[in-house]
Amino acid sequence: MNNLGIQYANSNKSWMTSLIFKNWVERLNSKMSVENRKILLLLYNAPVHYFDGEFSNIELYFLPPKTISKIQPIDQGIVHSFKSLYKKGMTRNLSMGTNIGTLSYTHELTKFKLVNALPLIIEAWNEVTVDTIKNCFNKALNNWAKIDEKILEESTDEKGIKFKSPYN
């Protein structure tokens, strides 16, 4: 997978694990350090996202528990755009030399593996526009302003960020 320019990790159940996530964040932090960049990661409040450690170039922000999708930027159209672009690329890739709906097309689908999907995933993500991402963040922020203030008070500290493990 490294020859595709990506890092790949898996687990027995095909789920994200704390170790996979931690290793990914550590690699990302190293990359951001080399590039002299600082970033903020917005994370679902999920147990796999919690681990001890601080990063020089990454700040973790955990969305409040049970955060509704209306205030999550990724759910405001980023995923939809990515999936549409991926499906378009997959259809284009599989239909080369075959007619959709024919037996040969169905046969091509059965041969389609992860290694075939990864370049299409990279291509689809690279085609998601900056404007799409900005618009989704703006939409989420507008929705965020409308949610119950009590939820905000319970999930923020004086900086507006609360880093609290669900296990405390």
From TrEMBL:
Boundaries of every DDE-1 domain copy: 2-137
Organism, scientific name: Octopus sinensis
Organism classification: Eukaryota, Metazoa, Spiralia, Lophotrochozoa, Mollusca
A cellular-component GO term for this protein: nucleus
Underlying gene: LOC115229395
InterPro entries per UniProt: CenT-Element_Derived (IPR050863), DDE_SF_endonuclease_dom (IPR004875)
One Pfam family in the UniProt entry: DDE_1
Protein name (record): Tigger transposable element-derived protein 6-like
An MF annotation (GO) of this entry: DNA binding
